[in-house]
Amino acid sequence: MATLMRIERIADYVGAEVTVRGWLYNKTDKGRLYFLLVRDGTGIVQCVVSMRDVPPETFEAARRVTQESSLIVTGTVRQDARAPGIPGGYEIAVREIQIVHLAQDYPIGPKEHGVEFLMDHRHLWLRSSRQWAIQRIRATVIRAIRDWLDSQGFLNVDTPLLTATAAEGTTTLFPVDYFGERLYLAQTGQLYNEANIFAFGRVYCFGPAFRAERSKTRRHLLEFWMVEPEMAFCTFEEMLEIAEQLVAYVVARVLEERRHELRVLERDTAPLEKVVPPFPRLTYDEAVRLLNEWAEEAADPERKAALRIEWGEDFGAPHETALSLHFEKPVFVTHYPAAVKAFYMQPDPQRPEVVRCADLLAPEGYGEIIGGSERIADYDLLLQRIREHNLPVEEYQWYLDLRRYGSVPHSGFGLGIERTVAWICHLDHIREAIAFPRMLYRYRP
Ligand code: ATP
Ligand code: MG
Ligand code: MG
Ligand code: MG
Fold first, then answer.
1. Is 187 within 8 Å of 209 (Cβ atoms)?
2. Which of 57, 106, 325, 361 has the maximum number of C-beta atoms within 10 A of its C-beta?
């Protein structure tokens, strides 16, 4: 009896008779020989069908089978350095083929397709080895985040997705009608995370976040996934150390476990090998000075204009890209002007116009993957900030309670999963980092 094999485990089966269940990825016709590339979701294996060695009906099945047909193949595993596939270097000498479903003419061929076409066929595009590699790396990123946080004493406590209040500014809120009452999809779990640390010490929530982004960029989705660790009795400095250790661990796990996938993506791993703590830290003031220096030096007037920045302005994509390209490692930019950041961030006591916050910019031009801060622990100051932001004070009474009963210094951050995956996989656009992206003008399939 042949054993059912996952292709990723093929090295353990040399000499054995195995069965693989999957789909036809590609076929080469050599006359008396067919090379079938079969994928099963864990890898791709070359299956050799030789007219000499198989019954006529098996050879006929190899002739008939079309791209993306589902099939069950049985044969013997042998080593052959030339064999393509993932992991590659092994092939199956076929004895039997059972076609489960003969696929119609498959719309995605070997020729280049435009992005719009591929996005319209996202449900089929996911079968390509490139998309396969990205999703496998994404799963490892998520696994690694959970493993690291769990090992550091964080408790996973998830937060609601339907909320009554804004946390990250009212311009990107997604309203939901609930029998005439207005609710919002969560932009972040942060405010609830803060409640949870007073019960559980160190927590993280892990889930989707929703933001009604209005502009078309390579970095923004309407629905994205975020992990948000939050820590009681945690200073701003300690928060930065936790963030850099987490990111370094995630990258190391991908390098360790996803070599084949990185190779499919032709990802140069040298820049990833450098992602080791400590990461450089730069204040917003220093970043503004650098950007204006580069603007000064730039010959191209368009680039000059894109880089120039006034103190007080938030960074746009060109600023983040330039800063990120300047460093080999991810870089923390800290102490932004309070006016461009959320209401709950702790002002610097020496300079209340800036807050104790940090964005982590991924290298190679990727920009922000983490936003974090120390939170305001003082009741009066928080109330004042809620008022200054014209937020409805009644809705924040429960949040103010956290400053009434045992308030402590506390900090936390949010790490965007798709941004992190886009960087680690070296993608041009965030849309490939999630199976079914939701973006401006793109909600289907
Ligand atoms: P940006 O400045 O790029 O709009 P942000 O400062 O609004 O991001 P935060 O509120 O700090 O984002 O959220 C924490 C993290 O969530 C970000 O660092 C990023 O990784 C991710 N993130 C935020 N908005 C989006 C989005 N629209 N699509 C994908 N990821 C996002
Ligand atoms: Mg934003
Ligand atoms: Mg930002
Ligand atoms: Mg941010």
1. yes
2. 361
What's the CA gap between 208 and 194, in Å, rounded? 18
Index of the ligand 1 atom closest to the CA of residue 360: 18
Query: Comparing C-alpha atoms, which of 230, 217, 259 is closest to residue 440?
Result: 217
- Asked if 301 contacts 332 with a C-beta cutoff of 8 angstroms, the reply is no
Q: Does 82 lie in the same domain as 178? A: no
Instruction: Give me the residues near ligand 3 (ion), CB cutoff below 5 Å.
Output: 368
Boundary of a domain, candidates 39, 66, 101: 101
The stretch 382-398 carries a mean pLDDT of: 94
Q: Which residues pair with 227 in a beta bridge?
A: 206, 415
Do both 29 and 171 map to the same domain? no
| Residue at 109 is within a domain | no
Does the residue 110 lie in any domain?
Answer: no
User: Which residue's structure tokens are 């405010």?
Assistant: 191
Taking alpha carbons only, the member of 67, 77, 4, 9 closest to residue 38 is: 67
Q: Whose CA is nearest to atom 19 of ligand 1?
A: 416
Centre of ligand 3 from the C-alpha of residue 324, in Å = 13
What range does the domain containing 421 cover? 123-433
The alpha carbon of 217 is separated from its chain's Cα centroid by a whole number of angstroms, namely 16
97 and 131, same domain (yes or no): no
Of 166-180, 199-213, 355-369, 375-389, the range with the lowest mean pLDDT is 166-180
ipTM field: 0.99
